[in-house]
Amino acid sequence: MYLGTDLLATWGLNLEFGVAGVANFAYIALVAAGAYTYAVLTLGSSSANGAFQSYILGSRLPIVVALLAAMAVAGLLGCLIGATGLKRLRQDYQAMIMLVVSIMATTVIGADQAIVNGQAGLSLIPNPLASLNGSARAWTYVGLVAGVCVVAYLFLRRFTRGPLGRSLRAMRDDEDAAVAIGKNVVAMRLMVQGVGGAYAGLSGALLAGFIGGWSPSSWQYVETLALLTAIIVGGIGNDGGVFLGTVIVPVLILQGVQFLPQIASQPGLVEDLGWIILGVLTIAFIFVRSQGIVPERRPGQRRSGTTAPLALAAGSSGGTVAARADTGAGAEEHAPSDAPRLAAWSVAARTREPGRPPGDAAPGDDVLAVSDLVRTFGGVRAVDGASFSVRRGSITGLIGPNGAGKSTVLGIVSGFVPASSGSVRFDGENVTEVAAFRRARRGLVRTFQLPHEFGRLTTIENLLAAVPGQRGESAMSVVLGTRYWRSEERRLTERAGQLLEMFAMSEKAHDLARELSGGQKRMLEVMRALMVEPKLLLLDEPMAGLSPMLSERLEHVCSQMRSAGMSILFVEHELGAVERLCDHVVVMAQGSVLSQGTMADLRSNKEVQDAYIVG
Fold it and tell me: What pLDDT score was predicted for residue 258?
């Protein structure tokens, strides 16, 4: 019985922590909310049974209704708790906030006698199978909980094994990178808080119905730590591993120590022994085997038809680039002209007027216009009145010495850094106050100065996670399952495979992104941005750390994307690449735009020369 109810709670917490990266230290409060909700909705009036306990509501609803209500209340409470700590804070700060919430909730419930009878808690909670007697009732209840666990596991697979689970894991691995490809991380975290809370509420309700009572002593914050230890031991992010961890930690250890003989001189030592073992296990697994006994399954190991990529035939895209990734010095160089065409990623149809050739921008047709941008950090003006524009279908370079404010401008344009004043207009609309993920959804997509990969996803899953508006990420996909999104997934996988082939990284398709070299990670980030089909691509020092072969390949891709109608703004210190690629160059120094023009003209500009030499 304890295995079943603990398993429901641990699965819910694993969805939040293991899959989505939400360290919810207030989770046991959601289990308690489910237990109390079930209790007050089945106990009847508080005046019954001699009125020896006080509580709110007091109804006698059907058992099924009470269980559903417990799930709903805990799920809603999970969203409310999440709203207090799910803004863009560091994960350790989120954990601290939720830990404080848990301690406050326990204190308030224990101190207020009127809510659920204070520290005494509630007793005489009805058993759903009260009509049965003795062992028949107990074992039938165990069977009921087992059946609920099976249904809960099958439902949970809909979240964790498809495109939705992939997006949740992407958010877990790198929040900024997820925002940069258009993911609403706050909404996604609130969603898993709600679903995880519903699992917690169901766990608490079933347990309270079985044991017939519940009190604040049953939901101290250390209970959450026990569930977290089960996840860490079994395998973070792996539902099967979590089952094994639940058997070991809350059942065999915490329940098992109760069968040990008591020590007369130390009456509480046996119970404490379980928690001591849990602490040692947690530390040991974090340092020795952080992935747990059963590691999270690699996407490439799954059966075809879920998220496993289809076979990437060498000729599937019509190209002849060898399916080979650059590994540094000595890598064989392939002719960039052999790369497949970029028709699959062309955005020309939605970024130019009918009949206009790709890359042919009408006079004054700017896809981006920034005006009088200012960004201050304390008393320092990192950006001081910068104004420039990017023509549609062109490549614009943003150059200047270190500390000129280039990356800060890119952060403002992409929405990651708020502007102190000034405006940003993208595709004819003022987006100065628009959230970063919404800008990405409109086609304003960025990369970062340092590689931001989804480390525990494979290379090809990094690309698939970036595709906007996937059917498999919708609520309907959870209801209808893989048949709803399987055909689209195959098409997107083929498209991602073509992109990998074009960048000569097909052999890395099933490698974890964290195992790639620095140059490969940078190329992966560019490929991921292309999967979003941007109207304007912002590249922050894309050539840094690349081998000559990869630099040449990236230049070739940028030229192709310009021909397909895409606009590019990139910050770069490699002036040779800027001169070869850019139609227009903006020079910044000390936060301001110093000069603009072609690279050939700027080379002879004395102000520009002085800025690089002095500034």
Answer: 82
